[in-house]
Every structure is written in structure tokens, then in C-alpha cells.
Design brief:
The complex is a heterotrimer of chains A (about 290), B (about 170) and C (about 775).
Chain A (H helix, E strand, L loop, with lengths): L4 E3 L4 H11 L3 E4 L5 H6 L7 E4 L9 E4 L2 E5 L4 H5 L2 H6 L1 H8 L4 H4 L4 H6 L7 H7 L3 E6 L2 E6 L4 E3 L2 E2 L6 E8 L5 E8 L10 E9 L5 E9 L6 E2 L3 H5 L6 H14 L10 H28 L1
Parallel strand pairs in A: 1-3, 2-3
Antiparallel strand pairs in A: 4-5, 5-10, 6-7, 6-10, 8-9, 11-12, 12-13, 13-14
Helix pairs in contact in A: 5-8, 10-11
Chain B lengths: L2 E8 L2 E8 L4 H8 L18 E4 L2 E4 L12 E3 L12 H8 L9 H14 L5 H7 L11 H26 L1
Parallel strand pairs in B: 1-5
Antiparallel strand pairs in B: 1-2, 3-4, 3-5
Chain C lengths: L2 E3 L12 H4 L13 H6 L14 E7 L5 E7 L1 H5 L3 E6 L17 H8 L4 E2 L5 E7 L2 H10 L1 E6 L6 H5 L25 E9 L2 H4 L5 E9 L2 E2 L7 E7 L3 E6 L4 H12 L6 E5 L15 H11 L3 E4 L2 H7 L2 E2 L2 E9 L5 E13 L6 H8 L8 E9 L13 H19 L3 H8 L18 H9 L2 H4 L6 E10 L4 E9 L5 E5 L7 H13 L6 E5 L16 H28 L6 E4 L2 E4 L8 E2 H7 L8 E8 L6 E11 L6 E11 L6 H20 L30 E7 L20 H13 L10 H8 L1
Helix pairs in contact in C: 8-9, 11-12, 12-20, 13-14, 16-17, 19-20
Classes of the chains: A alpha+beta (about 290), B alpha+beta (about 170), C alpha+beta (about 775).
């Protein structure tokens, strides 16, 4: 009979110690909305489950000098109630809030969504577009890396077996910037993204594009930044012409698969469509903010 | 088998149970505490039949380990109202015929209550999106949404009366 | 007399029609008698049963879609501490292919609940375990080792029909062919219904539409997984607690599979958390009984969602080829339909019913309907709400929509021109009595919905639907309690509010208030035999039994009053809930309360009963749905903007629950049309075994579903009742597909209409 332990350490050091002791036979639980399904299906058989929700820094939101730090286990519902995160990183909040139902939002976290390593994770493209940074703790202390470099391939991350993700840092944005996330699902709720697109946009005083990051989800083995987007948009007005070029660039970036949720042709085409719409939403948000 | 001693408050009552690591809060409520009003429809968080609140937050009890609920306050359908003290939602579900088979009903009432506690006057769209994680296969949702709208109105009126009484 | 009931018309201040003044209880909207239990979590469903000393069951299921079982090794599982017993097919009664009746082939049923020597679909049960905890039972099921010889799976009709394709069941020889089949085949049966001479008449048609359609396997999607508990006692009796659509069905089927006499089993019905036809058969009950017999302890088995999806009741996917001919004025001349339905791994898809219903809403003199029942390595198809009809109606209603646009005619006017009315003979040979198809079409024309204007990329679709409705065996018993209140018992599980309608019909007949009637669902030893809850028969047939039982009790109450008053029983009449002595003003009428008091003095307790088999008069149901959609031209996503379901319901006993049937059926049909489908890998493994990827509609997917209840009373029922539960799932597939087709200007023929298909069509 398979034996499974459980521990809920109160400190990062305590969690790391357990990870070291259990030599890769452990699973870290934050919200548990993916983990419990995998357990139930018999896909994973950990020797111990380590709950990080009792670790203060993994379960709190702190405003820092140059941005905001969100604990890896803070639930979507809590992030969604945070006024300044909503105001400054609307794309991250809307992506996180699209994960599952109200009930799932009560548990699911940014850290869990990222560590699960799914190419279709909603919050990951939004974190990347907003240049978020992971804080990782291990036996040798802390290290920071870009979210963009965190996932290696489906279900695989750069986390070593004795490391945990403790928090995510969202660096402050210039004044005239905003973000958006859109996904395509067949229903209105409760589905996994067939395509997801996050856009982060900054405008100059003439409302020309100063900076833009577009990141696509579910169209490649991991969330993928559209490398040519900056070149296409920077210095230009956001209009049909610039967006049409962006749409094509997004299609070119796609490297999707056929699966039960979507086809290569569909995913490629819709990535372009959603990218244009997401940039437009971010653009509108900036202008609305300026008019306040 | 590794068993954990879990203490929690369920509908205001202090309870203590022993549970296996893999037992969910749902398993604990149903199999250890015999509170079977909370239903299992999928065990993957996709149907909402197992909705409860955990420290005031709406969750699927099938996606919470029993041991994670240690020290927590859990509210289930059994704590919402009884025959003599029906909650406005329970009344309007009955009046509006918002249930057919009734197996999803406890989850809907728990979820809708958590919405109305937070937002007394939600729009139809807000109700539909809040309840998107609660599946009903019988009603087409129509009468459920109407029951929630009606209950919200009753609760607002009750609240107003209470405030007026206090003011007097 | 017919009346149309819309929300607008039923405002309290409106003048009641004469028809409605006739009734005091019927047509009102009281709170259902079992309601409080269901909103407080007290109602006990199948999985809620707990028995002293209970063991927990789990099932080992096949990973392969098609394979021979070479060996089942349970040794490792048995060694696990806490495992009490393991059974396989050989523990069931030995049955032969000839063990069947008109409803069910028990040889197949037994091989479905536990595979014999061959697994026939992914998830096919092979062995069942009983253990002291669910965790141990699950682990033991996992430890069972099966050695297979893997065979090539036959996953669709195209493969099943091919020459030299693997044969799923060597005992199947195509039935219904002119020449008896000589070789085994995956095609179990051919059926044909012919009216007039369609082949020849097509030559006269001025306009012909001719097109092929296809649909996928879909699941009923009830929220409550199958569950049961069984206790086998030393005197060779078994008691079963389970949720099902028919306790007597569970008793009969389980008895057969366990080799027990029917009377040795008692079935106690639990509340049922949705069925839609999917709980008209058994999966777990014989396993629980056998495990209980072996262990001497009660055994409970509850499926999880994955098991429900892999191994229970989907309904057939299929193809339809429709040819419809008309003259230039829009009069239908002739119709042909050829249907092929997937039966799953055992014969018996509802293709015959598809053929019978396909053209039934229309007056066509020349029709041919051909159906093929095809075996594939998918779970055995179970009934699903109007089985067989939605797929056929999707094809025919799409063809009519296409014809309307070719004729540049309004699609409702085209249907009005051709709709079946009283006296029309349907292709399956029945001549209709009073029916309400025309009234539904007229109600649609007069609706605000139909007049609403549409914008670009929006489309409107309409479609009609027909379902037979049935009668059958129903029993009811009714009694006065000492306090004058009434208990009414029937043998039909309450799947969607039937306790309310039974209580209302009893109250109406007795002339008392509904609050004074307590309706109960009795177990198999407390009420005589009743057919299961299905076929839209309960409010009609069991309702009729309740009315007759109440009348039987009225006769007895009048006799007792006569005895008490010392008058001739012929002098006593029943009026407004009281016994009245006619022509005697000096005798005070006697209420039920008073009669209860004199019961013991006049001969003992008072009750009434009716055990009936209703063979005629079920009154077919017709409906018409209107659906407006908007298609996102860049992504192919469909939004349902507005939806109206119109149906002839005969007489709505409890209008809210009747509306609920229309709304629920429409929602299921919308899911079927847009997003629901079984997706199999090429090896035959089901890829979407949960509600995440088997996408039933969620609350935010749907608008309010308007209803219009048309009431053309059924002459076959004392109150005019028609069955209402199944008809509402027949029109939506066509209504949604027509709406989408009209929105994008292309005929959509392949369900589900998911964004991928639509975008590839738009280009």
C-alpha cells in the first residue's frame, strides 16, 4: 500500500529541509487544484506532500520599492481583490481569474499555475508579458529568474528537486502602460485555453508605441514571446495596419500541436486574432487611464 | 496507513477526525462526519456539487485535502438553514422550481450564498459567471438564476429593514 | 379547446379561462413536497447510503477498446490487507444468448457489467473488489493484472462496415435483410418503414434537397454518478439501495444476472440525481449483490466521473442521409432518410426510433426510412431522452430549412403548410388523434422572439420535434391517515418533481388541498409492479393510476358515509372534498377528516388502489424551438443570444416543472449541437473522461430559455396530460444548426459545431 505523508512547514527553510530529506519523492502543494486531480488519477505518487500555505512569504502580497511581490500560494481570489494589482497589472489579474471557476479561484495560485508547467496555463503568458520574476529558494539560499525562463517543456521546469518557488515579482510599469489577456475556449468558462494571448503595451506622449511584449499560450510546448512584436509596434500608432502585421507575426511564432482541444491551423489563426484584440484592449485601457 | 488528526469547525461545531493524506475534505465530510449534503459529481473541481466555504472562501471540497482543513472554519449546506429556518435562497429555489433532481442544489445554494454575502445586488451576468463552476444538467439554469435574483432582492429588503430598525 | 400559456398571459390579474376554472390545484405552482430535503442537503441519493459493517467496492476496467482476456490474475490484489473478495464474470449467473425479452438481452447485459472473455470498449468492467475502505478497494482494483490479446478496435461506422474488418461479436448476423445473413457482421440490424411509393413520387418533385449529416456520441451527463449498496442475508435474500429510474427494473435485471428469483430481491429507491434515460439499466447492482453474498457484509459501490464517462450510457453518434422533395408551392411530396447509428459494443442503438420519428411531424404520403444498427468498440448505448429522435430530427429539420431558403419561404410557414394534424398518418403507421404541432407553429409566429431583428453574423434557426410518449404499467395506492390527511404511493422514482404532480392530481381528484397529500416513492415490496420512470410516461400513466386510485378511495369513502348515515350508498356523492347525501338537506356533508374518524367504526382503514397498464392514449408531443446565435467570424465561436422553446404539453399539472423540462431539454440539446462529443484516440481510448473536456453547457453559456406552453388537451387522459420530458431535446440540434448555418451562410451538417469546424468553414 502506497504511503503518503503530509507536512505544512511554517518557514521556507523548513520546506527546503523536507525537500532535501525526501530526495525528489515530494510534491509541493499550494492551491492543490491541479495536484489533487493528478493524485486522484494516479498520475503522481509522492511520498510526502508539502503544503507551503503556512509559510508567510509564500502566502502574502507585499508592495516593494519597484513593484509588487505576490506569494506563490496566494489564491486567485485574493489577488483579484487587490486594488493596486488590478489597476497596474490588469492582464495578470484577468489571466489568473480565468483559471477555473469561482471555487477554483478560492484555491488556485500563480505559483501553482506556473509550476504545473502546462503550455496552456493562463497566467503564464500574462506574467511573461509583464516581465515577472520568480523567486526560488533552495539549500543554497535564494535566486531570482525571469518567468520566461522558468518552464522548460510541458510539465518540466527549471526547479531542482530541493527547490521551491516562493513568490513572483511584478516590476512597476511606466505610467502610460497597461496589459490584457485573452483566451479562446469553446464555452464561456471552465475550459482550458485553446489559445491564450497576453499583451503588455506602453505608449509615449504621442500615443505611439514605446514598448510592447506579446506572449502566446497553448500554441507551442511552452508560453512563447513573439520576438518580432517590438520591432513591428514600437514607434507606431496602434491601428489596423500595425495590428495586421502583428497578427501575421504571431501566426509565424506559433508551433502548436493537434490535440483534443484544437488543431494546428485553428490555433495558429486564432493566435493572430486574439493578439490584435489583446493589444487593442491594453491600448484602450491606457487611454482610459489617461482620461481619468 | 498514515492518518492525521484534524480539528476543524464545521457549521460552527468543533469536530475532530482522523484522515488519510489522500482523503479530501469532501471525503472527510461525507465518510467521516456523515454530512452527505455535500455531493460528489466529478472529484476534479469541474462540477461544483461539493461546494463549501473554507474560512469564508468558496471552494470545491474535492480539491482540498482533509488535512489542509486543519484549524479551519468549514460551512456546508447543512449549516445554511433547516426546515424551520430556511435561508432566502432555499426558499426561492423552492418557489421558483429551481431544482429538478436536486443533486446539484446544495452546491448551487452554497455558491450563490457566498456570492450574495459578498455582492448583494449582482447582475444576471455576474450570477451566471459566479455560478459557472456549478453544473446543472436538469434545469438549463434559467430558474436557478431567477431564484438567485429573487433571493438577492429579499435579502436586500431584509437588510434594509434591519438597518431601519436599528436606526429607530 | 387549446390555450397558450406564456409568462405574459399568466400574470395573476389576467382573467382566468373557463378551462382553468375547472381546476383548483392543477395548473398552480405549489412548492414540491420533497423540496425542503433537497435544499437543505437532507435528501439521500445513491451514494449517501451508509450501512453498518459496510464494505467498499471498486472496479478494475479495461485499458483496451478491443481485446481477448487471456487471464485475470487477482492474487496480488487478494493479498492486500483489508481486501475481502474479488469477483469476475464467472461469478454471475450463467446466461445464454437466448436469455432475452423484448426490452433487454440479459446475455449482453451480463457481459456488459463484467466482461466475459473479451473486452469490448475502453473502461469495460472486468473484476470487482470489496474491501474495508475505499482507498484499499481502489488499490486492490489497481493491483489486478489482466493479460490481453489486443485486437484492432472498430471505432466508427465507416470502419465497422468495411470488408475484412474485425468482428466485434461473432454471434451477430445482420437481421432484417431480405436474404438471411450468412456471415457474422458488425451490422446488427436493418429496419425499414415505408409509406406510399417514395422512389417513384420523387420524380414529381420540383425541388429536391439531398444531403448527408453526422453527429458524435454524447453522454446524458447526469451530475450524480451511479451508486448502489447491497446487503445479502443468510436466507438468500438481497436488499439493494440505489438511485435508478426504476426500482422494479433494477430488481428484475439484478435477479436475472445473479440467478435469483425476482421476489428474493428488494430494491429501495434512493433519490436520483438525474438520469435522462441513462439510469434505465444496471451496472453496479449485481456486482454489489454478489460481493455481499461472498463476504457476508453490505457492499457499497460508487462510480467516479471517469467511470461514468467511459462505461455508462452514452447515446449513439450516427449519420443521416436525407432527401426531401417538394413542389414549387412548398408542399412536401416525398421524403427519404437513411440512418446509421452506433450501438456501442452490443446491439441495440435507438435507430428504429430515429426512423419512426424522423418525418413524424409532417404530413407526407410517401416516405421511406431505413435504419442500420452498427456495433463499434464504444460503451453500450443507453437511452437518452427521446432516444434516436434528436439525430434524425437534426437531419430532417436542416433539410426543411434548406428547402425553405431555396423556396424563399418563411421556415415556419413552410412547416405550417406541411405539418401533421389530427388524422395524419405518420410514417410508422399511427394515425394521430388531437395533436398540437400546428398550434406550436402558430405560437412561434406570434411570439416576440420571432419578430426580433437580427444583426450581421447573427442567425435564427427553427426546428420542430416529435416524441411518441408512452403509457405502460403503473401502480398507485392511496390511503387516509387517522388525521384525515392522505398518503399516495407510487412505484416511480421522482426524477424531476413527479411527487408534486402526483400529489396535485390526487388533491384535484379528491377535492382537497395539496398540503393534505403526502406523496411517496415506495420500494418494490410496498407497491405492486410499475414500469420505470422513462418514456415521458409518469405524469401521464402513473398520474392516471393516482387518479383512479383516488376515485377508488372516493367510492369507498362514500360507502362508509352511507353506512354511517344508514342510507343507500347510491344516495352519497363526492363533491368538493366531501361526501354529500343527495336529496337530504338534514345530513351535514362529511369531510375527509370526519370520514377518517368514522373509518374504524365503519369497517376499518380506508384506501384506494389502481394497478393499470395504459396501452393507448399517451398523446404524442410536438415542440418547436427558436434559436438566435451570433458567430464570431474571426474565431468561429458561437454565442446563443436568445432561445424559445414552445411545446404542446396537453395540460400542465405544475407549469413550473413543465417549463423546467422544456428548458433542461433545450440546454442539453444546445450542448449536443455545439460542444459535446466523445473523443477517442486512434487506439480507442476515451480522451475526455471528465466535465473539463466533455463540455456540457455552464450557466454563463446560456441565455434565459423562454418557454411557451401550448395546451391542446390529450383526450387520452382525464386532465388532458401529455408526456413532456423528452420532446424538448428533439428540436435543439436542428434549431442551433439552422441558426449557425443562417448566420454564416453555409449549411453546417456535422455536429458538434465547435469553433474549429465553424472557422474552417468560414475560411
Amino acid at each position: 500500500m502506497h504511503q503518503m505523508n503530509f507536512a505544512a512547514p511554517k518557514t521556507v527553510a523548513g520546506a527546503v529541509k523536507l525537500l532535501v530529506q525526501n530526495k525528489g519523492r515530494s510534491k509541493v502543494i499550494a492551491g492543490g487544484t491541479d495536484l489533487l486531480v493528478q493524485l486522484r488519477m494516479g498520475k503522481i505518487k509522492p511520498g510526502i506532500i508539502i503544503d507551503i500555505k503556512n509559510i508567510k512569504e509564500a502566502n502574502q502580497i507585499t508592495i516593494e520599492k519597484n513593484g509588487v511581490r505576490i506569494g506563490a500560494a496566494v489564491s486567485g481570489a485574493v489577488v483579484g481583490e487587490h486594488e493596486s494589482i488590478k489597476r497596474n497589472w490588469p492582464g495578470v489579474v484577468e489571466a489568473l481569474e480565468l483559471i477555473g471557476s469561482t471555487q477554483i479561484q478560492g484555491r488556485a495560485s500563480l505559483g501553482g499555475n506556473l509550476c504545473n508547467g502546462s503550455p496552456a496555463a493562463d497566467s503564464v503568458p500574462a506574467l511573461i508579458a509583464n516581465e515577472a520574476i520568480c523567486r526560488i529558494a533552495g539549500p543554497n539560499g535564494k535566486r531570482d529568474i525571469k518567468v520566461q525562463n522558468f518552464v522548460k517543456s510541458p510539465s518540466k521546469t527549471i526547479l531542482k528537486r530541493d527547490e521551491i518557488l516562493t513568490s513572483l515579482f511584478l516590476p512597476d510599469k511606466p505610467n502610460k502602460s497597461s496589459s490584457a489577456y485573452l483566451r479562446l475556449i469553446p464555452r464561456t468558462e471552465m475550459d482550458i485555453a485553446v489559445v491564450g494571448v497576453a499583451a503588455s503595451l506602453t505608449l509615449d506622449e504621442n500615443n505611439k508605441c514605446l514598448d510592447a511584449i506579446i506572449c502566446l499560450g497553448a500554441v507551442a510546448p511552452k508560453a512563447t514571446v513573439v520576438k518580432t512584436a517590438k520591432k513591428i509596434l514600437v514607434g507606431k500608432k496602434i491601428n489596423n495596419d500595425s495590428l495586421a502585421t502583428l497578427g501575421m507575426a504571431c501566426e509565424d511564432t506559433c508551433d502548436p500541436i493537434n490535440d483534443t482541444r484544437g488543431t494546428i491551423a485553428y490555433r495558429t489563426k486564432v493566435a493572430g486574432v486574439l493578439a490584435k484584440r489583446a493589444v487593442q484592449i491594453a491600448h484602450t485601457r491606457i487611454l482610459e487611464k489617461a482620461n481619468l | 496507513m498514515n492518518k492525521h488528526h484534524v480539528s476543524m469547525s464545521v457549521n460552527g461545531d468543533p469536530v475532530e477526525i482522523l484522515c488519510e493524506t489522500q482523503q479530501t475534505l469532501l471525503d472527510c465530510l461525507r465518510d467521516e462526519l456523515y454530512l452527505t449534503g455535500t455531493k460528489e459529481g466529478c472529484s476534479t473541481g469541474d462540477c461544483g456539487a461539493c461546494s463549501v466555504t473554507l474560512n469564508g472562501r468558496l471552494v470545491c471540497s474535492c480539491l482540498v485535502l482533509g488535512v489542509e482543513a486543519n484549524g479551519c472554519d468549514v460551512q456546508t449546506i447543512e449549516g445554511i438553514g433547516s426546515e424551520k429556518t430556511l435561508h432566502p435562497l432555499q426558499k426561492t429555489f423552492l418557489e421558483e422550481a429551481a431544482l429538478q433532481c436536486g443533486v446539484c442544489t446544495p452546491g448551487f445554494i452554497v455558491a450563490a450564498k457566498s456570492l450574495l454575502d459578498e455582492k448583494p445586488n449582482p447582475s444576471e451576468e455576474e450570477i451566471r459567471y459566479w455560478l459557472a463552476g456549478n453544473l446543472c444538467r436538469c434545469t438549463g439554469y434559467d430558474k436557478i438564476i431567477k431564484a438567485v435574483i429573487k433571493a438577492a432582492k429579499i435579502m436586500r429588503e431584509e437588510n434594509e429593514q434591519r438597518t431601519n430598525r436599528r436606526a429607530n | 379547446m387549446s390555450s397558450v400559456r406564456t409568462e405574459e398571459l399568466t400574470r395573476p390579474n389576467r382573467k382566468a379561462t373557463e378551462e382553468e376554472n375547472k381546476f383548483k390545484v392543477i395548473g398552480t405552482r405549489p412548492v414540491r413536497p420533497d423540496g425542503i430535503d433537497k435544499v437543505t442537503g437532507k435528501a439521500n441519493f445513491g451514494a449517501d447510503i451508509v450501512l453498518n459493517g459496510m464494505l467498499y467496492g471498486a472496479i478494475h476496467r479495461s485499458k483496451h477498446a478491443h481485446a481477448l482476456i487471456k487471464k485475470v490474475d487477482v492474487s496480488k490484489a487478494l493479498k492486500l490487507e483489508g481486501v475481502k473478495s474479488i469477483i469476475t464474470h464467472s461469478d454471475l449467473a450463467t446466461l445464454k444468448p437466448t436469455d432475452k425479452n423484448s426490452n433487454v438481452n440479459f446475455f449482453d447485459l451480463a457481459r456488459n457489467v463484467l466482461a466475459k472473455d473479451k473486452v469490448l470498449y475502453d473502461g469495460h468492467a472486468i473484476a470487482a473488489v470489496a474491501a474495508i475502505s475505499q482507498t484499499i478497494a481502489n488499490e486492490a482494483a489497481r493491483l489486478i493484472e489482466v493479460e490481453y490479446k489486443i485486437l484492432k478496435p472498430v471505432m466508427n461506422i465507416k470502419t465497422a462496415e468495411k470488408k475484412n474488418t474485425p468482428i466485434i461479436d461473432k454471434n451477430i448476423f445482420t437481421e432484417g435483410l431480405k436474404e438471411p445473413a450468412k456471415k457474422p457482421s458488425n451490422i446488427a440490424k436493418k429496419v425499414e418503414f415505408l409509406l406510399g411509393d417514395p422512389d417513384k413520387t420523387f420524380e414529381q418533385a420540383e425541388i429536391v434537397v439531398d444531403r448527408k449529416y453526422s453527429t458524435q456520441t454524447v453522454h446524458q451527463g447526469y451530475i450524480e454518478p451511479h451508486a448502489c449498496a447491497a446487503s445479502y442475508t443468510k436466507d438468500n435474500q438481497a436488499t439493494i439501495w440505489c438511485s435508478s429510474q426504476g426500482a422494479f427494473m433494477v430488481r428484475a435485471y439484478t435477479a436475472k444476472l445473479c440467478g435469483l428469483e425476482t421476489s428474493k430481491i428488494k430494491v429501495i429507491p434512493a433519490e436520483i440525481g438525474g438520469g435522462f434515460g441513462g439510469k434505465t439499466t444496471i451496472y453496479l447492482e449485481p456486482l454489489a449483490v454478489k460481493l455481499s453474498e461472498k463476504t457476508g457484509r453490505p457492499v457499497k459501490i460508487v462510480m467516479n466521473r471517469t467511470e461514468v464517462m467511459r462505461a455508462t450510457g452514452p447515446t449513439s453518434g450516427g449519420t443521416a442521409h436525407v432527401k426531401l422533395g417538394a413542389d414549387k408551392k412548398g408542399n412536401f411530396i416525398a421524403g427519404l432518410i437513411e440512418l446509421k447509428y452506433e450501438a456501442g459494443a452490443f446491439a441495440g442503438s435507438p435507430v428504429g426510433l430515429g426512423c419512426m420519428t424522423a418525418f413524424a411531424p409532417y404530413n407526407l404520403k410517401h416516405v421511406k426510412c431505413t435504419g442500420w444498427d452498427v456495433l463499434v468498440n464504444r460503451p453500450k448505448a443507453a437511452a437518452y431522452r427521446a432516444p434516436g429522435a434528436p439525430v434524425a430530427a437534426f437531419a430532417v429539420e436542416s433539410a426543411i430549412d434548406e428547402l425553405a431558403s431555396k423556396l424563399q419561404m418563411d421556415p415556419i410557414h413552410l412547416r405550417l403548410k406541411n405539418c401533421a394534424t389530427e388524422g395524419t398518418t405518420a410514417p410508422y403507421g399511427v394515425t394521430f388523434d388531437k395533436i398540437g404541432h400546428k398550434e406550436c407553429l402558430e405560437a412561434a409566429l406570434n411570439s416576440n422572439h420571432y419578430r426580433k431583428k437580427l444583426k450581421p453574423y447573427q442567425g435564427r434557426g427553427i426546428a420542430s420535434g416529435f416524441w411518441f410518449n408512452i403509457g405502460g404499467n403503473s401502480s398507485a395506492e392511496i390511503m387516509i391517515n387517522e388525521d384525515g390527511n392522505v398518503t399516495v404511493a407510487t412505484g416511480n422514482p421522482d426524477i424531476g418533481g413527479s411527487r408534486a404532480s402526483m400529489a396535485m392530481m390526487a388533491a384535484e381528484t379528491l377535492g382537497i388541498n395539496m398540503e393534505n397529500v403526502k406523496p411517496i416513492v415506495a420500494d418494490t415490496e410496498s407497491i405492486p409492479y410499475s414500469d420505470l420512470t422513462g418514456g415521458s410516461r409518469v405524469t401521464f400513466a402513473t398520474g392516471k393510476a393516482v387518479i383512479e386510485a383516488a376515485e377508488d378511495m372516493i367510492t369507498e369513502m362514500c360507502k362508509r358515509a352511507a353506512k354511517f348515515w344508514k342510507v343507500d350508498p347510491a344516495q352519497v356523492e363526492w363533491k368538493n372534498g366531501k361526501a354529500i347525501c343527495i336529496e337530504r338537506t338534514d345530513i351535514e356533508p362529511m369531510s375527509m377528516k370526519q370520514i377518517a374518524k368514522i373509518a374504524f367504526k365503519t369497517g376499518g382503514a380506508i384506501s384506494g388502489k389502481a394497478n393499470i397498464n395504459v396501452k393507448k392514449g399517451a398523446g404524442p408531443g410536438f415542440g418547436l424551438h427558436i434559436c438566435d446565435v451570433e458567430v464570431d467570424p474571426e474565431t468561429g465561436r458561437v454565442t446563443v443570444l436568445k432561445y424559445t422553446a414552445i411545446q404542446d404539453v396537453g395540460k400542465a399539472i405544475h407549469p413550473s416543472y413543465v417549463e423546467g423540462q422544456l428548458q433542461g431539454g433545450a440546454a442539453q440539446g444546445i450542448g449536443w449541437a455545439l460542444n459535446e462529443e466523445y473523443v477517442y484516440s486512434k487506439d480507442g481510448n476515451l480522451m475526455n473522461t471528465g466535465f473539463l473536456d466533455y463540455r456540457i453547457p455552464v450557466a454563463s453559456d446560456l441565455p434565459m430559455i423562454e418557454t411557451i406552453l401550448v395546451e391542446v388537451p390529450n383526450p387520452g387522459h382525464p386532465f388532458g396530460v401529455r408526456g413532456v420530458g423528452e420532446t424538448p431535446i428533439v428540436p435543439p440540434l436542428g434549431a442551433v444548426a439552422n441558426a449557425v448555418s443562417n448566420a454564416i451562410g453555409r449549411r453546417m451538417t456535422d455536429l458538434p459545431l465547435n469553433p474549429i469546424k465553424i472557422l474552417s468553414e468560414i475560411g
